[in-house]
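Reference record
================
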Amino acid sequence: MKTYSIQDLENISIGASFLGSGGGGAFSDSQAILDKIASTGTTEFPIYDVSEAEDTEYLCVAGGIGSPDALSGKLDELITAIGIAITQLNTSSNKITGVLSVETGAVNTMLSILISIKLNLKLYDCDGAGRAVPSLTNLTYANDESYPVSPVSLVSAPSSPAAKPEVETILTVPSAGDAETIIRPVISNPVFGQMGGLALWRQTGAELKNSNVVKNTFDLALSVGEIITKNQSDYSALIDQLGNIVDIQLTGLGVLSNFQEITGGGFDTGVTTIAYSYPKWGIFTNIYILNKNENLITYFDNYPIVISAPNLMCYLIKEDDGKFWPLTNGDPLGKYIGKEIGLFILSANDKLYDTDTGMLQSFNKILQTVNYYGPVIPNILNPSEFDDQFKSLMEKFNNGKK
């Protein structure tokens, strides 16, 4: 077990927001959750290593699901919904004593900390992806035979934190794909307002220890957050130090020139445009990043290559104070048009490229929903001829990163 301070949680918020690959909720919401954590008066925050789980204790995965934009002004209501969702998984003989974060991202990472405090649950240093994902099917929990997805507890956010939710339901489904198929249309109903509280994948400590979960995700978010905080005014140093703990495939500093987005079906879908130029290396191009909550595809005006998930596509925006801060698709990107923005293409956790577990295939299916039917590029486990093209582009861009 490691014990974290409120300053550590500030850095976890920054790191998790960056590692969310443009998704996982707004950085501003992450900071709002941090304020609520601070207001509890708690000064020490224990997070347990997976190896410390007791074999017979019961845990569950819990967080919010839906459109990040829908969370605005409804944070307290979502927290209420998640708490009720967890409680619904209790039985007379098997009470939930620990919680697992859905993903690494601005909101769910910090919500899991807050929920663990409010419900007095143990929190474990792991999640289902090491990044934020657009679908439950993209989580390692979904591609693990150690435990079933059901029962799935879904609760609507109430009209106020003290009010009773209009919908509290338990779903019994055979797979995460079936849960996703049912939940997205349900949360699109006005009663839910494009989001809900979710608890699922109830499991024992023994099952957690034997599972394919991504470990040490809070610790990585902390390290990333510390580096960003320390080097907010020195972009070159920030890149160099980040490169010591994450695999930076490509990075470039450009200008945010456009952002368009629509909300529906429990998703925010849109495209971000970054104008990038570095005359010394002959680079003049627009970079386009397509998102479905999370960033999924990056492509270029003048270069015949596409970068795809599960690789991470992360942003840092230069604020008026000259410092770089995380930026996600849940934040109001429109107000940052004309500002300098750093794009980072990072390798995902190795588990997400695994074809034996079905993880890579789960991302292929998501990419097809935005009309991309090509291979994952770059693929760090099984490189193809497309990876050679990517490496050539990477070298050109990274020469101009500073």
User: Anything to note?
Assistant: DSSP finds ten helices and 18 strands in the chain. The mean pLDDT is 91. The two ends are 39 Å apart (CA to CA). The longest helix spans residues 385-399.
